[in-house]
Amino acid sequence: MSIFKHLKTTIPEYGKIRTMKFMKNKKAFTLIELLIVIAIIGILSSAILVNVTSARQRANDAKRKSDLNQIGAAYMSYFASTGSYWVPNTGWLNGGEGWFNYQEVSSYPTSMADGLIGLGYFSVAPLDPGLTHASQGTASAGPGARQYMKYSCAAGFAVYAQLELPSAQDQADYNKIISNHGCPDLTAAYRMNYGMYFY
Q: pTM of this prediction?
C-alpha cells in the first residue's frame, strides 16, 4: 500500500486536502483570455458570413446573365417568325418595351413575359432572383425593384439587369452596348448596370 493511500485510509481528511490543493493549482481562463477567444470567434463568423453572402450574390448575378440570354433568344426567335422585336400589346403602353415581368392595368396591361408565354416561347418566364412569381404583377416588381428590362437600340434591342456584384468587365460590356449600339443608358433612371445587345 502506498503512503498516500495509507494516509487517505487512516486520515479521512487527507484525500480532501489533496483534492483542494490540486484544484487551487489548476489554472483557469482569465477574463482577457476569454475576451480574446470571443473576439476570434466573432471575426471568423463575420468572415464566413461575408463569403456566404458574396457567393449567393455571385450566383444571383450568374442567373441574371443566363436569364437575359434566354430573353434575348426568345425575342430573336420571335423576330425570325415575324420580322419584329416587339410583341404587340405588351409592355409599357402596349409598346413592347419597359419592365419585362411587370404588369398593371393602366400602363402595363400585359407584361412582356406573359406575352412571350402566350406565344409559346416560355412555359415560365425568367424572373430576377430577387423577385417571386407572386410579386411580379405588383408594384414591388416595378421601379425600385431588381427586375429585367427591354428597350430598343439604334438597331436591334437590349435587355438589362441590375447586378449585385458587377465586375469591371460587366461595366465595360454595359458601356459598350450604349456607345457602340445606341442603346439607352438606364443607370440613372432605373439603376441598371448590365445589359446584353441583340440584333
A: 0.73
